[in-house]
Amino acid sequence: MTLLTVEASGAPTLAVVGGDGQVWLYRPEAASGSWSSLGSPFPDPKIAGSIVTSTTRQGTNTQHTLLLYNASQMWVRQGVDSDGTWFAIPSDPKLFVSQLASVTAGAEPQQHIFASVSAGGHSELTCKVAVRENSVWTWIDPGGGPLKHGAGLSATSIRDSSGRLQACVVVETESSGTEFSMLIGSGHDWRWVDLGLPPVPGRLDAALVADKGPDPQPGDEPTVVLSIDSNIWTRSLGGDWTDRGSMPRYGIPTAAFEVDATAGRRPLWIAGVSWGDDLRTFGLDDAGVRWEDHGAPGSVATVVGAYTDTRNDEMIGRVVVVDEYGDLWDTLIEGNSIQGLVGGPSGWSYHGQPTAAVTSVAGVGVITVVGGDPQPTWAFVVGSDGHLWARTADAAGWAWVDHGAPTGTSIKTGTAPIAVDPAHGPIVHVLADDGRLWVRSRSGHEWGWSDRGTPPGRLIFTVVGAAPLVTAAERLLVAAVVVTDDGHLWISVADGDSFHWNDLGTPTPTERITAGIGVEAVTSATVDIAAVGSPGGGVWTLRWTPGGTPQWTARGRPGDALIQAVVGTMHDPANASGCLVALIGNDKWLWATATTGPGQTWSRWDRPPWDSDVPSTTLLSGKGAVFLDNLPCSVVIDDRGRVHAVTPKLS
């Protein structure tokens, strides 16, 4: 993340690199459309990159230079017009470029590049400066001690008392005394200044020098910004450290900008990213300190599903989601078997949309088969064209596959895929706009559609779920459960190419089913079905075995909380003969109950720890489940479009 001035008003604009590899500009004061894209130069958008900028001014003309880089390549772009182009430039993969600055070399400003360099193949890092001389970039060693690994560089341009334009960069060093220093100079002339530390212990989050903009004032000293345990400290070269308070929700500042440095005033604008992946800014002026929350350019709209990746003898949870633009993403989550609370997503991988003209409008589900690299995986979505699409991982890598739709129909919704025989791949049940239940499955290498129709004389309201079963005669069956327009549960049981519908009825003569929660096979020949009834508004579960009598159990609801959203069902690690049912109450908490326990026994699953001090966090929707360290896990979305993975607390 970096800051620049684009508008004539001088208002600061942020430039950030999204997880999709695109560069985004954020203008807080824009009349409409605060976020805009400058495209992406990355051949593979899943490779992370960082961005820095430099601004030079000649008369009334302002020129922005953007430098985008990762561990192996750099790209440069002149200007921030939407039709601009990114150009690749040669780079040494041992260089970790962190900032641009402009200085004078004669009459005109000249750009300098600061980098931390691993010299001669050694692990020790030193600071180097690149200057363009006779059309060739020359790297200069300004001296100084070794740098700490992982320490970022931050630079700006200043003018000395004579008006000469110089560059300065703040670094974290390995020296035993002062841990921060500033390098100031231009060309081949450089000096080091010790900065010391604020008078508090704690973990360093970030060290920055505030950007003074394209035309710094003569004699105006640079302002240094530190974050220690999310607490902001500032100082000038000749001043002392000043405590500016904490960034909300454990954020880390990544860029700082001096909005106006005239008349001895130093209004600052600091930007950072919270642990919830939101953009936050910090204003410091005569009115005091104030933090603002600006969200993010792409919020998560729906959870497609979650699965356990067991490659390399490790068990890692993966969550697949669709953002507000219809793009597919996945991320890793890691369990904590001691605390029982799961941390946030750790890095996002971008899968894009099915085609340039088709977006993902609804998630269907995810399924995986243990083994292989990548592990064979299918993430099914409904496309904006009404087709069933799958993002598929196999030996050839990831690819989008168009599964189409039954002739003359458009797919509306679907339920999570199941695997009766892993060698044959997944089976997906969907509801088309003709009101019929359709199945997408594979025989050998050929995919095809099967029509399951509708229950006799009824219309299908929604598909609850599906599960594989095994009969006493070792025949494989596929059971799919739906809710019809009269509030009954029906189950379609497929035996080879034949199938039949069974009416499972309603919990009581006056209670109707209004929403499905999920279906789980709890034994080889038994399923548990969870649904919401009306007018009672509580959860009901039904245990069913082919040829047996449906057994309804009232589960009620958690305390006085009404049900806001259903999350799903998942296997119960505490009792293999039952499953867990998860939902979100109107109290905005995640609740779960077990189908093997007594009715109306609910437990609350807490929010992630970094949200525990934010009562306003609102859970809206979610989906279960994946297992992390043998813990059941539900994936939920809050009202800010952020993803949380939550497991039950352990005693």
Textual characterization of the structure:
The chain is mainly β. It is 0% helix and 54% strand. A four-stranded antiparallel beta sheet has the order 1-2-3-4, with no helix packed on it. Strands 5-6-7-8 form a four-stranded antiparallel beta sheet, with no helix packed on it. The model is unreliable at 335-345 and 608-615 (pLDDT under 50).
Helix and strand topology:
Elements lengths: L1 E4 L6 E6 L5 E4 L8 E3 L12 E9 L2 E9 L4 E5 L8 E3 L5 E10 L4 E10 L6 E9 L2 E5 L13 E6 L5 E8 L7 E7 L2 E6 L9 E6 L13 E6 L2 E6 L5 E5 L5 E7 L9 E6 L5 E7 L2 E6 L6 E10 L6 E8 L4 E6 L14 E5 L7 E9 L8 E7 L4 E7 L2 E6 L8 E8 L8 E6 L4 E7 L2 E8 L6 E11 L5 E9 L4 E7 L2 E8 L6 E12 L2 E9 L4 E6 L6 E6 L6 E9 L7 E7 L4 E5 L8 E3 L13 E10 L2 E8 L4 E4 L5
Antiparallel strand pairs: 1-2, 2-3, 3-4, 5-6, 6-7, 7-8, 9-10, 10-11, 11-12, 13-14, 14-15, 15-16, 17-18, 18-19, 19-20, 21-22, 22-23, 23-24, 25-26, 26-27, 27-28, 29-30, 30-31, 31-32, 33-34, 34-35, 35-36, 37-38, 38-39, 39-40, 41-42, 42-43, 43-44, 45-46, 46-47, 47-48, 49-50, 50-51
